[in-house]
């Protein structure tokens, strides 16, 4: 590698890191947090005894899982203005990713809830709990532990998927890399550099997952 | 105190309870025995509506519930009934994410809205009673089966139920751990706790029961004092069952 390339590499470190910390990470965190709430609600709706919430939840999961995330982002950002809804790129991206996380993770949470032995429900009922109390105090805390590995997967996927937001003009890390690449004429170098940052972020998340799994397993023999 | 009239329950085509009548008084111990599939566990689970009967009626002190096909039982009655009953399960079903103390506090705090301090004090009192005060901070997986079941008994008692229900409380235990659980139950009986116990331990049943019910095929075959039921059964099928059981115990 010649000096010029090294200089370009070093010069772009900070802008990429800045874009990652200021835009990629907040987008991923906010979308994941909102998406989790949506996912829990969707899972509960699907497990509820009532028909209408069940149908709505199934329809939502069906649509989101059956269409590409990129298409959804384009509809939200480029499509909705046609009906008078103009959204800021950040808001549009947050909505798109939240809907996506909500749909995929609802299946994880639903499976986790179903994996809890029915004796736990019965024990909760036998001390007088309502269904809601049983869920909140007994079932969800145990389901949370079961869902840490698959949810970590979702989060790691999401961090990488945020690069799609570049296509709707949200200047996160990948879009920043595109800009640097086009001015420096070093696409190989810059895109590899961006890739390294994603790898770094995801490695931190994996470490966090390990920590969380250890912490949550303190009450189990396995 | 408890009165059950003409109770019926089916699972799909399978009729499990075919008209059960029984009555019991406050402070007494009722033991239900019978071959597996006789409906005894289902009957016990009707006491706190973990199974909702199809027909008949159930009353427990001031609560009276009538069952007819397809009529939903108001949630309020179900919750009221469950607050007057405590249940101990065959497989303990302790909450694995809570300590022994947490398990015994949970119902008090979440359901009865007691303060944490009050609940902790009562929980410690109960754990002491079942001989596990020193295990208050242990998680269920750190306890033996017998210890877990004793915590489960403390948990069931923590909400001050009027009646305790036991569903084969020693069936999942290693033989050497059965004694410690039975001892706790006997102690409760001596203190005048009202209890309904489904069990296969005949010697224990004879010891602890005020009355025994022998079920078979969804009916009550025999009922009476332990002596009447265990030593002088009237029904040939009851005799057959008791002979088989005593044969196994020798």
Automatic annotation (TrEMBL), chain A:
InterPro entries reported for this sequence: AA_ABC_transptr_permease_3TM, ArtM/GltK/GlnP/TcyL/YhdX-like, MetI-like, MetI-like_sf
Q: Output the Pfam families linked to this UniProt entry.
A: BPD_transp_1
**Superkingdom of origin organism:** Bacteria
User: Which key words tag this protein in UniProt?
Assistant: Amino-acid transport, Cell membrane, Membrane, Transmembrane, Transmembrane helix, Transport
- Every copy of the ABC transmembrane type-1 domain together lies at 21-209
Keyword Transport listed? The answer is yes
Record-linked NCBIfam families: HEQRo_perm_3TM
The UniProt entry's sequence similarity note says:
Belongs to the binding-protein-dependent transport system permease family.
- What this protein is called in its record is Cysteine ABC transporter permease
Which organism is this protein's natural source? Paenibacillus odorifer
């Amino acid at each position: 590698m010649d000096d010029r390339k090294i200089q370009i590499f070093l010069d772009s470190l900070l802008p990429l890191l800045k874009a990652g910390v200021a835009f990629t990470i907040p987008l991923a965190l906010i979308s994941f947090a909102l998406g989790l709430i949506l996912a829990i609600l969707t899972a509960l709706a699907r497990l509820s005894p009532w028909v209408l919430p069940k149908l709505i939840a199934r329809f939502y999961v069906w649509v989101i899982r059956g269409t590409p995330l990129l298409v959804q982002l384009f509809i939200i950002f480029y499509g909705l203005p046609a009906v008078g809804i103009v959204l800021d790129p950040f808001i549009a991206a947050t909505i798109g990713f939240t809907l996506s996380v909500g749909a995929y993770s609802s299946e994880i949470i639903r499976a986790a809830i179903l994996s809890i032995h029915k004796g736990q429900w019965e024990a909760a009922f036998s001390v007088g709990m309502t269904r809601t109390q049983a869920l909140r105090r007994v079932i969800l805390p145990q389901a949370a532990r079961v869902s840490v590995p698959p949810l970590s997967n979702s989060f790691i996927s999401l961090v990488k998927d945020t690069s799609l937001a570049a296509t709707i003009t949200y200047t996160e890390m990948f879009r920043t890399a595109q800009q640097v690449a086009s001015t420096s004429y070093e696409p190989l170098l810059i895109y590899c550099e961006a890739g390294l940052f994603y790898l770094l972020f995801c490695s931190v998340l994996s470490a966090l997952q390990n920590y969380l799994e250890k912490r949550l397993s303190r009450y189990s023999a396995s | 105190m408890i009165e059950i009239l003409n109770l019926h329950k089916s699972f799909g085509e399978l009729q499990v309870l075919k008209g059960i009548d029984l009555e019991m008084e406050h402070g007494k111990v009722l033991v239900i025995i019978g071959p597996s599939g006789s409906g005894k566990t289902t009957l016990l689970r009707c006491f706190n509506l973990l199974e909702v009967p199809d027909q008949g009626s159930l009353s427990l002190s001031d609560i009276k519930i009538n069952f007819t096909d397809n009529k939903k039982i108001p949630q309020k009655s179900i919750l009221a009934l469950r607050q007057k009953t405590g249940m101990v399960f065959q497989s303990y079903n302790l909450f694995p994410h809570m300590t022994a103390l947490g398990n015994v506090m949970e119902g008090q705090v979440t359901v009865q809205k007691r303060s944490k301090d009050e609940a902790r004090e009562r929980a410690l009192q109960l754990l002491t009673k079942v001989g596990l005060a020193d295990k208050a901070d242990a998680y269920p997986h750190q306890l033996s089966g017998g210890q877990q079941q004793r915590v489960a008994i403390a948990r069931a008692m923590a909400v001050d139920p009027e009646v305790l229900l036991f569903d084969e409380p020693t069936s999942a235990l290693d033989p050497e751990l059965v004694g410690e659980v039975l001892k706790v139950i006997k102690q409760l009986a001596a203190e005048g706790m009202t209890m309904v116990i489904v069990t296969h331990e005949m010697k224990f049943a004879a010891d602890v029961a005020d009355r025994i019910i022998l079920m078979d095929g969804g009916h009550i075959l025999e009922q009476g004092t332990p002596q009447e039921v265990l030593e002088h059964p009237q029904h040939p099928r009851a005799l057959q069952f008791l002979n088989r059981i005593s044969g196994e115990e020798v």
